[in-house]
Nitrate ABC transporter substrate-binding protein (Hyphococcus luteus), 487 residues
Amino acid sequence: MTILRKSGLRNTRLGKVASFLAAGALLAGCGGETETPETTVTEDAAAAPNLENMLALEKDELTFGFIKLTDMAPLAIAYEKGYFEDEGLFVTLEPQANWKVLLDRVIDGELDGAHMLAGQPLGATIGFGTKADIITAFSMDLNGNGITVSNEIWEQMKPHIPMREDGKPVHPIKADYLKPVVTKFKNEGKPFKMGMVFPVSTHNYELRYWLAAGGIHPGYYGADDTSGQIQADALLSVTPPPQMPSTLEAGTIYGYCVGEPWNQQAVFKGIGVPVITDYEIWKDNPEKVFGVSAEWAEENPNTHIAVVKALIRAAIWLDENDNANRPEAVEILSRSDYVGADAEVIAASMTGTFEYEKGDKRAVPDFNVFFRYFATYPYYSDAIWYLTQMRRWGQIPESKPDGWYMDVAKKVYRPDIYMKAAQALIDEGKAQKQDFPFGTDGFKSPQTEFIDSIVFDGRKPNDYLSKFSIGLKEGEKVTETGEVLTQ
């Protein structure tokens, strides 16, 4: 367990605040006639927090959890750059073993909040898996995932992939080119196994989306069968992110969908080939969120706003000046306290490039987005997309009216809290108004940039579901025997 920034630094900071207040009291008591050395006052004022802007915090010592992935970066940067301390917060960051442990610890109150999969607060709130009311007021990033296959599978895919004149594959690589391989496995009676990180993870839905767009059925969830493998052509199962490369190398799975640096790690080790990024599956998709329990948020409203303020500042730092700070971010994330992977591996994607087949490095400047494009704003339409995928694959077993999707989105995603934090930063001169979506109703315009070109309008979830050839539609459900019936 990693324990960071403990009471010693807190005492130092409080000491500076006390010195600052004492200096002010001395000046006031002297009526301004006795001059205090200007350099001393200036140094103390610079070191002390801006008391005028500080919220009345309900709780100032906090513990946040994270998984060792590069998209936990806003937490690391808010910590390392002192943004938490600027808000009067004294934070401990702890890596967690897996997503379930992380969620359970937030629910139990052992963690005040955590780096979460975008689908986790939604899944918990609707009761898929552990039932609990979790909310998010901050989206941590856009994009950041990839799908990797083993060298053996890549060699079998290549004859089906269009090639450029220089002999490199035409991108994006669709699952259409994997389908003959999966069919071959099926005809030989061999299961085609792939890994994803959690049942309500972005990775699960992105992998399923990509497979289904190529005519490969990724399987349904049922009331009595939560494997997600009912009627599946490709069998998806959970593997923790850091274990993906070793599980692939062992031959337990033939491919996986995961966040960085674990796709680039496969290239670095020479054991697999990333075939597509999630940017190519759904351009600028929301990936992780910062989640807290609804009870914690209700008990600590000012503390919550202060946390979001610090995270927004970290996101700004990560993207500002055309990603000029990314090399420093890579060095920070490579430390064992955070991701603990080689800086070279982390830099492969964090600095605007992505390596597919070894030696095929391409520019992907938006592979990791932390602030631009309103990345940190928790859009209702993003929440609804995840809910449609839960319904599509049977995690939501019964049809729901469009209004239900909206109600859940508004319960879980909290742009009202986000905008309070944003306005405070603007008032303090730490952010600019044009960097936030003032005036939005929480919905993005209908989105067209999916790999299958199907348009998503968050206001019409059931209409969206009706457009897919593979997946549950309004009025359909999976029976105990694995059949899809109309209700």
